[in-house]
Prior knowledge:
Layout: E1 2-5, E2 9-15, E3 30-36, H1 38-48, E4 53-60, H2 64-72, E5 76-83, E6 88-94, E7 100-105, H3 114-121, E8 129-133, H4 139-148, E9 152-156, H5 162-168, E10 174-178, H6 179-189, E11 200-204, E12 210-214, E13 217-221, H7 234-247, H8 252-266, H9 279-288
Parallel strand pairs: 1-4, 1-8, 2-6, 4-5, 8-9, 9-10, 10-11
Antiparallel strand pairs: 2-3, 6-7, 11-12, 12-13
Amino acid sequence: MIFNLGSINIDHIYRVPHFPAPGETLLSDSYAKGLGGKGANQSIAIARADGQVVHIGAIGEDALWTLDLLAKAGVDVSGIAVLESPTGHAIINVDTSGENCIVLVEGANILLSEGQISAALAQAKSGDWLLLQNEVNNGPFAAKLARAKGLKVAYVAAPFEAAKVQEMLPFTDLLSVNEGEAASVCAALGVSEDEIPVEKLLITRGRAGVSYRDGASRFTQAAFTVDAVDTTGAGDTFMGFFLAQLDGGKSPQEALRMAAAAAALKVTKKGTAEAIPLMEDVARFIRSSPPKSS
């Protein structure tokens, strides 16, 4: 079982010919509204990867529809509170190459109480996972509580702040960062990548794929080659599929391959949560276009 303490956002997506320059007023080519947030995306990815996931989070009364979408995707929404606060939201610009530029408003995402988190984790068992990222509050509290209950803690250090990473590292079993973030962690701690003090380290390296350290074992996974339409949520899709596969007993290499394929499929479609692929589509994609791995 995976307990995901994560954000739930209303995404406002604008497709633009290019990202606006300072002072520029730009007409968008289209607009769409949907479910997003790193946490919600990750939970849907876990569910679509045939994982079991309880989402812990908060929304306002302006986003009750997000509960229906999450539940229909297979996410347990019993840990989501409805607060007297606007729901978090994101303004997402997507250019013609599929790259994105995002502005976040935190809203209810940073109003999670320690009591709510404790209640949601009351059903957790030793050996379960707690997944965290930086779009919600009380991450260190949740990680300490999870560790005390025998859970493993996976931490996606995004949006990245070196100080938050340093605070979380003592309670983290699996740290996920991109290549630039890994360099910042190394600089802050005065260590090399191999010396970052976690048992499991996942580093995404863009077109170069990903690397993964699990104790003394090392793994790499090449990226699948696709024509990107929208990269929003690709990292969340990767992490959701990867953790679901690990939790389901798959080897790290199998989990990396499945996650890379899921992220590749996601970027071929417009949208965020609604564009996260199903397990059967990912398996079919792998059979048709296997990348190199080691």
